[in-house]
Write a structure and sequence with these properties.
Elements: E1 2-4, H1 5-13, E2 21-25, H2 29-44, E3 50-55, H3 56-61, H4 64-71, E4 80-86, H5 92-104, E5 112-117, H6 125-132, E6 136-140, H7 146-158, H8 166-175, H9 180-194, H10 203-210, H11 213-227, H12 230-242, H13 247-269, H14 288-297, H15 300-320, H16 325-340
Parallel strand pairs: 1-6, 2-5, 2-6, 3-4, 4-5
Enzyme class: transferase
Catalytic activity: DNA(n) + a 2'-deoxyribonucleoside 5'-triphosphate = DNA(n+1) + diphosphate
Family: Belongs to the DNA polymerase HolA subunit family.
Length: 343
């Protein structure tokens, strides 16, 4: 069964105990992630659930992992969940098979199944499987409006005993990335800054918190790569390396920019010729011509492949630890050369 928007949020907070599998998807993957967290809390109660996390690559490499995890019983008798993060394409057939098997035999699996995905078209096989199964649910989430984001910011600040001036709130919300998980990180940072401040946050506070030299340097490296300037990108990376900036920080900034470009493509396809002011952060009129040229170098399908490269690079960098930065440097260089070669 398909639930959308507010209905999907309500189901995630209070999941039907008869439903054993849930597909949560959104163009903002952070919303799908938050839904997974809510489902685990709703199903698990106290002390919580035993959760196994799998992704596309792990399951594609060893398909039996999925069914083994679903069938495994907790040694302590705790409720269990298998949480799969997927692009929706690589392992769609296998996930659909698991949904169908659990629907056919309610005793087949010991664990609940949570599938988190990005945007999925109506003809998606994965969507069809979740929508058509009697014991599964399909949750579709939509990107938040600015008023919703502003409400979350004020709530987070109130928890710290702080408030924010309206102009500062508008500026902060406007600069937030259009991705729930990344935006949450920025909101948490603002709340920590406001703790014990003793006065309302103002516009100068917001600017001081966000406009740091390191942030501008990272943006310079990302922009140089996506615009097709390998030399400038590598020079920027050299400076960041000297400052001890982590590769993960660079990847997160790259991810934010790619998501913004994907959002721009979607709005343009919907008939908006210049959606810059509606993006997060916005693209101002003076910057739009250059941004439009960049979009021409990176069609939506190509950007989706870049997202896969970013996820792979992040995984490799985390595994490699302090010596993982060359992985990021290679990705930035590859992107810069690819953009440079576009005519």
């Amino acid at each position: 069964m398909l639930h959308k928007g507010r209905a999907a949020e309500g189901f995630a907070r209070r999941p039907d105990p008869e439903v054993w599998a849930v597909l949560a998807f959104s163009e903002d993957e952070g919303l799908a992630f938050d839904a997974g967290q809510a489902l685990i809390a709703g199903w698990g109660g106290k002390p919580g659930m035993d959760v196994t996390v799998l992704d596309d690559d792990a399951i594609k490499k060893e398909p039996a992992l999925l069914f083994d995890a679903l069938e495994a019983v907790s040694l302590l008798g705790d409720s269990r969940a298998v949480r799969v993060r997927t692009s929706g394409d690589k392992i769609a057939a296998l996930l659909a098979e698991a949904i169908a098997a659990g629907d056919k035999d309610p005793r087949r699996f010991a664990a609940k199944l949570i599938i988190e995905a990005g945007s999925l078209p109506g003809k998606s096989k994965l969507r069809a499987a979740a929508e058509g199964a009697k014991r599964a649910a399909c949750l579709q989430f939509f990107a938040e409006e600015d008023t919703d984001v502003a409400s979350r910011v004020k709530t987070a600040l109130l928890a710290e005993g702080a408030v924010i001036d309206p102009p500062a709130l508008d500026a902060f919300v406007g600069d937030l990335p259009g991705h729930r998980a990344l935006a949450n990180s920025e909101i948490e940072k603002l709340a920590l800054y406001a703790r014990g401040l003793g006065r309302p946050l103002n516009l100068e506070d917001v600017r001081a918190l966000s406009a740091t030299d390191v942030k501008q340097a990272i943006s310079g490296a990302v922009n140089a790569a996506l615009d097709g300037h390998p030399g400038a990108a590598q020079t920027a990376l050299d400076k960041l390396s000297e400052n001890g900036t982590s590769g993960i920080s660079i990847l997160r900034s790259l991810q934010m920019e790619v998501l913004r470009m994907l959002s721009a493509h979607e709005k343009i396809a919907g008939g908006d010729g210049n959606p810059g002011k509606y993006l997060r952060p916005p693209v101002w009129p003076s910057d739009w011509p250059a941004f439009r040229v960049r979009l021409g170098k990176w069609p939506a399908r190509r950007l989706m492949r870049v997202m896969e490269r970013i996820h792979d690079a992040e995984r490799q960098t985390k595994l490699a630890g302090p010596i993982g930065d060359p992985v990021v440097r290679l990705l930035i260089n590859d992107l810069a050369k690819a953009a440079e070669n576009v005519r």
